[in-house]
Predict the structure.
Amino acid sequence: MAELSALLDKEISARLPEPERPLVVDPAVLDVALPLSGKATEAGFAVLPRGSRAAVSGELLRFFTYWRQTSRRTDYDLSVLLLDGDFHTAGQVSITNYHHGGVVHSGDITDATNGATEFIDVPLDVDAPYVVPQVFIYAGESFDEIGESMFGYQTRTRDQKGAPFDARTVRARSHLRGQGRVALPMVFAKGETGWQAVWLHLYLRGRPSFNRVEDNPGVDRVREGMDRNVVKVLLAAWERPDFRAGLQHLIDLDEVTSLLAALAVDDHDDEVRQRAMDLLRSALEEAEIRRAVLLLIETDDIRHSLADAIADNLTDRPGLATAIRSALDDPAVRAEFRDALESPALRALVWKVAEDEFRGRRLTLIGQAILLLLRHRPARRLAWALKRHGVVRELRRKPTDPDQA
């Protein structure tokens, strides 16, 4: 990671003015994301932009949501989804399940004429590395229509007495104002150094009414809509502060986050998909981003998770998946791939293949590939490197019919 860190430091430093006096930076600031638009945050107390992290201490987390309706009965429901290390559901606490593994719900309130609050207590020794609080609109006014609505969390000791809501223990409180019927304000992740709160500020469409954690397209649906191994790759990369701090100056992370959420929903349209493709293409045309991504592949855990993700999407081509894994583990192949991607013509062909998904104008693609091999030496070297691992041979094989396997 030293080469990646140096690359990002060089790019960021080139964009900064020369300081007239010594500059002192609090290390805690390194976990605060740079907002590139107003969509990245909400009003409230101690609210940070989307993607920012904050350390969490104490023995107990107390989540709370408050809402006050304006003209019709409104029922908001606070829920918590627990995920294991592989992003599988490990449990949930909501109006349908008040207790799970020490996590406790305060009870369901269905009318907020004079305001209403629900709480969920989560002990920090809970047997789940990811805790995802959510606010569902079960009935009534939306987040944009309601008189007031907010989400926040407190840190407490197990034996702490007093009122359920103690302002002295509140660590953050965020207004809920967004389109959609499901709010995902934060996720809490346990790492080697303890728990961290990660700000999301996401809103999902959900249903017009009767949204619940069990059957709503919330975090669980987003997780299932994205390949778990791809999620692990993104999370591993994002755990590296130098990578995160560098990329947020080079690409609009708000756009990336919103597109990932949109793509995770089953009924996303072709326009959303094209936006994602255009964003990824423009990002990788930036030399700094291209080099940073390629350097990440040199990290064993990220490379192996990437190979797992490829295998998950090639269940009908097990031989091809094995050949690609072997090629990824070969430093010589990675070096040839890095050199080849510096060719604009080769990058254009890669995007052509991705957009057509190996369907449709396949003969045209084969012709372009042959022409590229004839004209570009880096492409020829990469082809020979892949051939050594059997990738070319497996590409010629027909997919296996799962029903006949």
